């Protein structure tokens, strides 16, 4: 999450790294290869079945059946004309007759009639009837793409996102992922379902304090943090003083109560206490509590530094809640109050990066660095934003400049792991694997306990020569070092989807979800998990075996 400064890689980048921009596309990459492999009989049977039954149907020529089917076909034709004239009730009546007339040994035609009738119900927005008719059609013709797509639309409209996803997944598989509109529908449903699952999970979840490392990194992302800057007398026994000592000694669990004491006493540091308490509410994912405290600081009679810090934090919260407009309003307000505070530009730059508004991101980071050239994190993120900008605009000259800037960053901040990591990322994009690996090793020398570095090394192996085994080995090493490394579980889950190990991938995504810190992260992870779950369900129904042999 950009706004917490926890990871230089927004999560969506992983999918791009692995070559699939849509979550639903991940397993498909793998399945597509299998479908194109002539030896994989099971999968070719998939489409063969429908063709066979059609052939058989056409071979029939019993006289009585023929006339019954002829009549049914005529009724259907009349139904189609009524449908196109917008006379849906008349069309429904005609399709009803076609269904009644249709002989039982013509299941594929009968499926069409149900499908035709459901088109009328769809026009009438009668979603339950649409679903029912599509279900009839699918019982008669289990590989009927149109029925899957229509039932998916009706399910989406009536709020049954699980069915909507499963059906669109079936359609995508039958269409061999060649139909863009189905993939786009799948992606939209996945995002909505992921968000729904994330909210449900968050409502159930007991707030957990993030790791000490995470909290330290979070505070370090503010160069002008007004709370760490205050120095207090050791003998001060006020609530805020207690909270501040707990912050220094990393005893984070006692901070909330100490702040509350200061606030209830209406003490001298009441606003500082509100800001600190809000910060921990943010870290715990208690959004409403955080928002209420931050509003008190922003609207209260207090210093500009406190207000600006509160505005930046509230803006970042708005990003998580996907309220971009309020987020940018808060940043604008902060910039107006304190135009020389580099934190405002640095954090706003991260938001623009997340929104892929590269022009704005680069100019924000440039401003942050200009105001505070010794702040390593802003400096390096500026380099990275410049890189993304150059890459998007295919500007070779700018790319050369970015590399020189990164080299300078490493010299200037040799203890900053982020500098090595982001530069390594740039180099592996440029397919300079050896140099990228060396940089990840250099980062390990600076930050040897950082498990995510092994995940990055694993990703290089994947990009370099699709070496899944080597990548998995490295990522497992990350988990050994830190069994709370959510990035490792997510990456491994994504790899297992691509290798066709859907069941294993579900476990891994589940684990990553338990560790996710923000709603955005959870939404993304649930989308991955839901996509894998839908593919597993469809493949079990059709007896597809995706595992690597
Ligand atoms: C009825 O089904 C046929 C065959 O699939 C199709 O060509 C026709 O467009 C359908 N009519 C409607 C109204 O959906
Ligand atoms: C690992 O390194 C990345 C990049 O420097 C940093 O964002 C992250 O917080 C670190 N994590 C741990 C657990 O050390």
Q: What report would you give on this structure?
A:
This protein has 549 residues and is mainly α. Among the domains are: 57-204, Serine Threonine Protein Phosphatase 5, Tetratricopeptide repeat (Alpha Horseshoe); 225-340, Serine Threonine Protein Phosphatase 5, Tetratricopeptide repeat. It has 29 helices and no strands. The longest helix is centred in the middle third of the chain and has 25 residues, at 180-204. The chain is elongated, with a radius of gyration of 29 Å. Keywords: Membrane, Mitochondrion, Mitochondrion outer membrane, Receptor, Repeat, TPR repeat, Transmembrane, Transmembrane helix. The chain crosses the membrane at residues 12-31. Belongs to the Tom70 family.
What portion of residues is helical?
A: over 70%
The helix count comes to: 29
| Strand percent estimate | under 5%
Q: Which parts are unreliable, with pLDDT below 50 for 5 consecutive residues or more?
A: 1-23, 29-44, 46-60
Helix and strand string, N-terminal first?
HHHHHHHHHHHHHHHHHHHHHHHHHHHHH
Average pLDDT for all residues: 86
The global form is elongated
Major sheet characteristics: none
Ligands, deduplicated:
2-acetamido-2-deoxy-beta-D-glucopyranose
The appropriate CATH architecture of the domain at 57-204 is Alpha Horseshoe
CATH superfamily of the domain at 57-204: Tetratricopeptide repeat domain
The CATH class name of the domain at 57-204 reads: Mainly Alpha
The number of E-state strands comes to: 0
| Radius of gyration from CA coordinates | 29 Å
Give the helix/strand class.
mainly alpha
User: What gap, in angstroms, lies between the N and C termini?
Assistant: 37 Å
